[in-house]
Amino acid sequence: MAAAMSVSAVVPPAAAVARARTLLCVPATARAPREMAAEVAAAAALGADVAELRLDRLSGFAPRRDLPALLAKPRALPALVTYRPKWEGGEYDGDDEPRFEALQLAMELGAEYVDIELKVADKFMKFMSGKKPEKCKLIVSSHNYDNTPSAEELGSLLAQIQATGADIVKIATTATEIVDVSRMFQILVHCQVPIIGLVMNDRGFISRVLCPKFGGYLTFGSLAKGKESAPAQPTAADLINVYNIRQIGPDTRVFGIIGKPVGHSKSPILHNEAFRSVGMDAVYVPFLVDDLARFLTTYSSPDFAGFSCTIPHKEAAVRCCDEVDPIARDIGAVNTIVRRSDGKLVGYNTDYVGAISAIEDGIRASQSTHSTASPLAGRLFVVIGAGGAGKALAYGAKEKGARVVIANRTFARAQELANLIGGPALTLSELENYHPEEGMVLANTTAIGMHPNVNDTPLSKQALKSYAVVFDAVYTPKETRLLREAAECGATVVSGLEMFIRQAMGQFEHFTGTPVVDNEFRALANSLENPCTAKRTQGAVPKPRL
Ligand code: NAP
Predict the structure, then answer these.
(1) Per DSSP, what are the bridge partners of residue 139?
(2) Host domain of residue 88
(3) What pLDDT digit, counting tens, does each position of 195-245 carry?
(4) Ligand 1 contact via 410 beta carbon (within 6 Å)
(5) Whole-prediction pTM value?
(6) Do 408 and 371 share a structural domain?
(7) Which residue minimizes the CA distance to atom 12 of ligand 1?
(8) Same domain, yes or no, for 365 and 338?
(9) Domain count, the chain
């Protein structure tokens, strides 16, 4: 396995990467030239800088017939022309000569960029015999669909590409784990010529968003979901509207959610919008992490400033932090990590307050009371799950004077948590027939029912009849099957979205060091159902009170 490289060694002084703004390129991948031209127009309307014409995707492509129309001026966007052969991950299945002729024609017709694969770059140069138009930039590319080589191997690949006479270097590799991306960042930072450096698949996702920070020449964003030209390519709309890439630069601080899986999380949408609202130079990305300790030691620069933690890393996060807030330590789970100015990682738990206050307020609203006494005091509170969220809920309910019962798939873990809290443990099948009293509260803290498994539920509708209040930590979808059936049984239901908003508010305060106003942050969260159509809510989160 290639050695991981610490990003503390990679993040450069700002001046070292004072390069031109990273361009956003949308691949046009339609089968017919007319549709491809329409895609280019759509990319321009989205705000892209360049359109990549993937000639190998066209069926029945005839260069002399189709290229003049595709490259006719005026064009909606500068064109990057790529005619990718099968042996490099494309669809062209023929000899090099006709392919080279098409690329040469594209240059003559004024294409701003032409991409040629490293394996045939020398042959292409001979074919061109110095006739490349001055204005056309030649991108020499290398694609590795298996892994990301070591930093040394990437360095020699870079030198090899530069030696071909490339105007722009393109290296695309594949991440087998997220730490692989740090080696690409290192290459981007130290490269002396324009370079496109991207790491494919979902573990490499951050390379596509953070390349402006490390000086990448260009990043790709698809026209829409399903139109990607490479694995885990984000949409151009998300790059612009969610990740705000136009504002990312060398000084941008990086935050994100560490999890596995992490793709379902709405945290990037919410935190990026909140950062934008307060004018903070920061970006929040999903980190798909296999090994938390390895991730934290690799991305150890002060620029990687704070993290949210979700499944399955909340317990490991307690061990990985230099200091842990006493409540988080008691709970045994950290959902927020902040890198202090001395470089130390400090762990907190905002799930606990977020979930418990949401349930308390849900009960108060159903009883139309504003009493400050906790409505959980004295209640029987059943927690399904014994992971990070389960521990936070169990701890919080106990603190509020509830009698806590733990039910979990792995019974030993239920027992362990129950012993800690001082209550009984149940198996999931025992829970089905558990109804010792009226007015019980149920809290699901497992991922059962989470998108895409929306028809799953942790407890039968029959068993739900014993509960007066039902809370579900799952928030995608907002109304889970558990909550729908509980409401049908007459219970007061509390959505995981409410916990999500409240725990995120706590995290945002830790990240920024300043308090936010509850209902304004909530308005922001509620406006983000669809990130791409949500209108920008400048000022929805108050300016931090400094
Ligand atoms: P975690 O630490 O990995 O714990 C997962 C728990 O769920 C464990 O008790 C596990 O049981 C149980 N579980 C997982 N899959 C199961 C299945 N198929 N059947 C039965 N039990 C299963 O995860 P976590 O961080 O606590 O998160 C749990 C859930 O809460 C996730 O859906 C997460 O999205 C949600 N959550 C929501 C919020 C919010 O703001 N709304 C905040 C935090 C978490 P075993 O012990 O047997 O493995």
Answers:
(1) 115, 168
(2) 21-249
(3) 999 999 999 999 999 999 999 999 999 999 999 999 899 999 999 999 999
(4) yes
(5) 0.88
(6) yes
(7) 446
(8) no
(9) 3
